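User: Design a sequence. Structure:
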């Protein structure tokens, strides 16, 4: 029988697992957590991206490790988590960042009527089932430890009319906010917080070149008059990952330059 624990946790490890850490926002989060003194493990799908990120980051194997694993592969993720625990001890921070947003050939979002069931399923699997799998794999260890920080990277598209992303993406990110609240309810009594970050337009491979027609149009909707950076998302992630954020759980934090609600 699991017992409820207070805010003091027994295992003081600062070990973080980041999904989709090879590029964009995920790479920014990995870099920030390393700078904050965490031991960081990350996964991404493509081996060349994993290798290049490890080279760019340049940390030793005692601080940083990564493998190319798809977050939807539960068995492979479970084995990776076991390897991290054996090497560094309990993982105290989980960042569910990996996400995909397939577009049409002209870079616009696919319409509902044009979307295949397979495409719908793949986006829901990566963006929503992946975080569920990871949370379920990590929860027992965090509960035993009496401490944990889980941060899910959602999107403005899950909160407002999705102007650029497709219905599958919007549904997955709206679902992620619901999953965040449910997990926060379930895990709160054990010293574990679960929060969601909903970025607006952040410069990355996913959004493409800032000067593209779609981005120039998006810029007109952002009150601060510019796109966000992965580092700006990483700062908030690092705060939510820290013990300082102990009374924030079940929340969705918008990082949109004022676009959401504007
Ligand atoms: P990028 O496309 O730049 O990077 C995505 C990362 O996720 C890559 O490291 C990629 O790995 C990895 N990834 C993709 N699919 C999988 C998978 N199945 N298993 C493991 N890793 C995977 O995206 P961003 O950095 O822009 O986005 C990061 C998150 O932020 C996503 O969840 C996205 O939905 C969200 N977001 C982004 C916004 C933006 O404006 N950029 C706005 C709102 C939300 P690989 O390189 O190997 O393919």
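Assistant: Done.
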């Amino acid at each position: 029988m699991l017992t409820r624990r207070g805010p003091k946790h027994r295992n003081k490890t600062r070990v973080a697992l980041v999904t989709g850490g090879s590029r964009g926002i995920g790479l920014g989060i990995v870099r920030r957590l390393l700078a904050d003194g965490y031991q960081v493990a990350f996964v991404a799908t493509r081996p060349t991206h994993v290798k290049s990120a490890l080279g760019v980051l340049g940390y030793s194997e005692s601080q940083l490790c990564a493998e190319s694993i798809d977050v939807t592969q539960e068995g492979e993720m479970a084995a990776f988590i076991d390897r991290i625990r054996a090497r560094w001890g309990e993982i105290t921070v989980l960042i569910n960042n990996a996400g995909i947003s397939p577009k049409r050939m002209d870079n616009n979002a696919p319409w509902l009527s044009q979307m295949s069931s397979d495409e719908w399923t793949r986006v829901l699997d990566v963006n929503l089932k992946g975080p569920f799998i990871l949370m379920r794999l990590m929860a027992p260890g965090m509960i035993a430890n009496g401490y944990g920080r889980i941060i899910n990277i959602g999107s403005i598209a899950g909160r407002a009319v999705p102007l650029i992303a497709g219905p599958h993406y919007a549904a997955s990110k709206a679902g992620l906010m619901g999953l965040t609240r449910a997990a926060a309810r379930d895990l709160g009594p054990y010293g574990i917080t679960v929060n969601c970050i909903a970025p607006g337009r952040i410069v990355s491979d996913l959004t493409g070149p800032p000067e593209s027609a779609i981005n120039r149009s998006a810029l007109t909707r952002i009150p601060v008059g510019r796109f966000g950076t992965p580092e700006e998302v990483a700062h908030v992630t690092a705060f939510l990952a820290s013990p300082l954020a102990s009374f924030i759980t079940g929340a969705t934090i918008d990082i949109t330059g004022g676009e959401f609600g504007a």
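The first strand starts at residue 15 and ends at 19. The chain has a mean pLDDT of 94.
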